[in-house]
Amino acid sequence: MKDNRRSCFKTARRIVVKVGSNLLTKDNGLNVDFVHAISRQICIMIDRGLQVVLVSSGSMAAGLRKLGLAKRPEEIPKRQAVSAVGQASLIMEYEKAFEACGKKVAQVLLTSDGLYQRKRYLNARNTVHTLLSWHIVPIINENDTVSIEEIKFGDNDTLSAMIALLVNADILINLTDIDGLYNKDPRTNIDAELIPVVSTIKKDIERYASDIPGALGTGGMMTKIRAARKVNTAGIPMIIAQGTKPDILIRLLEGEPHGTYFAPKSHKMTNRKCWIGFTTKPRGVIRIDDGAAKAITQNGKSLLPAGIVDVIGEFGAGSPVEFTNGGGEVLGTGLVNYSAEDIRKIMGLKTSEIKRKLGEKPYDEIIHRDNLTVVWECD
């Protein structure tokens, strides 16, 4: 696979940069020198005409430093309290760093449920776009203070991919503490080899990634690979590179072949389909027969009530729902036009029978083709 990152950077207008916990942590506290170094590089990128969104970890490290704690607390409320203290210090440090080169920053704290709902997703996108139009650097992190398991992104690799999709970025740069993806853990294997280009994320790539865990953050190499899969599907390239290399962002911008380059798919999904396929959280399952499965996955059709054989879970109209074949294999995700209760009443029926059964027929389709994403589009 040809490494065309140089041409990608030449045409790029908007870049998402993610920096991980390992880079932002020093002696169990915030690495202030790194904060200022990365901020200076982003300022240079902006001065060259780019829009940059920064996804930053580090609130826990900053909180530990400010509170004088030797290690992260075990209890979740205490961790969230430390993050709350640290988030203020983290953004203040970024503010000082960017102010030194004449730039303003804005703090954006998100939870995943803020992106699951389409209206809130669009509101978040509009806010970030407005900040960029005002030449303000959005600094995005998960809102650890209020996040619980049900609304957590889980790691900032996942968050950075969602943000890249949200703002329709041209490139996602994921900075970490190793040079990129290796065929084995380079920290324990001297014969480990860097993989410079990944054209398709196959099982061997996932196997390499699973052997390289993270040290301090919640995500290891595997979460970065999953992030790459998401953005590549949307037509966005991603680079994993070592953030401690001097001026790494500028060197990448100038086309130097550092790290691992994940090439995007040739076809590009629409923003709406990316949101449905990668951001929504399914509220239930619809099982369909073989005829409906073929119509949807091979012929690009909508899901009609005649092809439905079972409905699992309770959900309202407009909810994201997975649809599966008879064997339980997930075929995709879509937004339903009817509630679970109503779908159970009309499943197996022809569209002409919907009004007789429900008293009204606002839609022929259970899921319209424009409101579903099938698995093959994500592969």
TrEMBL record:
Catalytic activity: L-glutamate + ATP = L-glutamyl 5-phosphate + ADP
Annotated positions binding ATP: 18, 176-177, 218-224
PROSITE patterns, per database record: GLUTAMATE_5_KINASE, PUA
SMART domains per the UniProt record, alphabetical: PUA (SM00359)
InterPro entries: AceGlu_kinase-like_sf, Asp/Glu/Uridylate_kinase, G5K_ProB, Glu/AcGlu_kinase, Glu_5kinase, Glu_5kinase/COase_Synthase, Glutamate_5-kinase_CS, PUA
Gene Ontology CC terms, in alphabetical order: cytosol
Principal location listed in the UniProt entry: cytoplasm
HAMAP family (alphabetical): ProB (MF_00456)
The protein, known as: Glutamate 5-kinase
